[in-house]
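Good morning C.,

I know you're traveling, so I'll keep this short. The sequence:
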Amino acid sequence: MSVPPVVSLDAVRRELPAASAYAEAAGLALATDHLAETNLAFRVTFMNLHGEAFLAEFDCRDYPMYPPTVEFVDPLGGPGRGIASLYPSCFHGMPCVCARYNRKAYTERGGPHGDWRLVDWQLPTGNGVAIDSLAMIVSDLHSKISQSVGRLG
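The tokens, ready to paste straight into the viewer:
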């Protein structure tokens, strides 16, 4: 089952003001200039403890039924994406942002978690916190990356 692109785009547009406000307050660059029904993605640039930049793409196809796919991409626009050298050191070495809010973390997307179901992505985690919106996802990633040092690869 999939979500019509117009529904996903509407959901993303409704949530982006809160995500943008958080990004601005945290000093993050959030880019939505190519967001459309045919490109349901936006990007956020995060900085680690030493000021290294990491560009994350949030592919929101089938959102909000399923979580976005969070992937680190080449900030220079090259073909590199999802390779260890583009990831902050605080994530899985495969590489992957291992969180319920990342579609790539699920086994059906090549991730390590066969024990999670995509439709349950908005449920609270083991510590009782639900990360169930784009603003919360950006905030959680920021808290992890801002305290990390170096890259995976």
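Safe travels,
E.
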